[in-house]
Amino acid sequence: MRGYPMMFTPLLTLLLACQPQEQPVPAHEQPGVPEATVITTPEPTRLTRDSVNQVIYESRQTVITTAVRAISPAVVGINVTEIREYRDPFADLFRNDPFFNHFFQQRRSQQYEVKGLGSGFIISPDGYILTNYHVAGNASKIIVTLPGGRKFDAEIVGSDPISDIALLKVDGKNLPFLELGNSDQVMVGEWAIALGNPFGLFDINDQPTVTVGVVSNTRMNFVMNENRIYRDMIQTDAAINSGNSGGPLCNALGEVIGVNSFIYTGGQFNQGNIGLGFAIPINRAKSIVEELKATGKVDRSFWSGLKVQTLDPAVARYFNLKNVEGVVVVEVENGSPAEKSDVRPADVITRINNLPIRTSNDLLIFQRDSKPGDKLDLDIVRDGKDIKKTVTLARRPDGK
């Protein structure tokens, strides 16, 4: 079949099988062959339009199309309404003025509606839906649309702004739902399938949009601000755009491996797709979902008592360090878990939980994305010696 594309191989095989074959000489007419031995030749397969169409149809079936058929029924479009408040920054300046106070009184605080959209996916037959916090975490009204057009009012079961996860619930039974995979087993280079509601296209035909790429990278960490930590993110070149947030990133088996969350382009986030999309690993989302079901929030009321700065070459020379990667402890708060674990100022932390620490953001990721009782196993360089310390995160005595 040299020179022919692989997609035509089944069709060519069928055509060749249908060609008339040279008829062999019957055995009883061949010299030296006993008359009892008879070889019969089957009738050649007849070429029909239906048989050709069937071969072509079967050649279109791939692991991607099979996975998409299984995934699509449980992917939803989400439309939200938020109530936001605007305060005029000049209103309070004239609070005591008898003339201008009346003028600014109505402008001092005003509420207005903001509409948004995103994606989500059903994770249980009784209607639990997983999405991003930035999609629906602050919504006052949420409408969920299933493929085919069925609409449900949804309520927020719980949300966590740090991990950017929100759990919704609709009143449904026997709903299609997705199987959650194991993101620890994701392989760089394997197929990645993203489904969702980019730019509100779900509303046109009540079906999710499908894009396909590969897993480009894993274990990517980002700090958007101190209130949002993206840890161990899965990177993909499957097209993700505005509105895809909260939708599933799946493998070729149809299992969810991540929650599509943001894109990066030209030095800015969330502008337009250039093949750099990121998804929250589903294993991280699983543990958060269970806590949201139980309490409606993730308890992050803890402290370590550590203040650090990124190690630079000058500081490394001061401490006679050959490796300039790590963070140096600049302050340990009195009575803190770090002090109780004998972590001291001037200690250089190089690893936490056996993962390298290169910048102060790396430490922030571990601290902010933890819970009371979690342990931080620290690899420390102190006075030129390698030591290990374990800090157990605890609630602050003042309750903050």
Structure description:
The structure is a single chain. With 400 residues, this protein is α+β, with helices and mostly antiparallel strands. It is 19% helix and 34% strand. The protein is built from 10 helices and 19 strands. It has helices at 9-17, 49-60, 63-71, 100-105, 133-136, 202-205, 282-295, 313-318, 337-340, 360-368, and strands at 75-86, 110-122, 128-131, 141-145, 151-160, 165-170, 191-196, 209-225, 228-236, 248-250, 256-265, 268-269, 277-281, 306-310, 327-332, 348-352, 355-356, 375-382, 385-392. The protein has a 6-stranded antiparallel β-barrel with strand order 1-2-3-6-5-4. The longest helix is centred in the C-terminal third of the chain and has 14 residues, at 282-295. The radius of gyration is 31 Å and the shape is globular. The protein starts with 8 loop residues before the first helix and ends in an 8-residue tail after the last strand. The model is unreliable at 1-8 (pLDDT under 50).
Written as H for each helix and E for each strand, in order along the chain, the element string is HHHEHEEHEEEEHEEEEEEHEHEHEEHEE
User: In angstroms, what is the radius of gyration?
Assistant: 31 Å
| Overall pLDDT score | 83
Structure classification:
alpha+beta
Query: Strand tally, please?
Result: 19
Helical fraction? 10-25%
> In this structure, how is the largest beta sheet organized?
6 strands, antiparallel, barrel
End-to-end gap: 72 Å
Beta-strand level of the residues, as a percent range? 25-35%
Give the overall shape: globular
Neighbour order of strands in the largest sheet: 1-2-3-6-5-4
Unreliably modeled segments: 1-8
By DSSP (H or I, 4+ residues per run), the number of helices equals 10
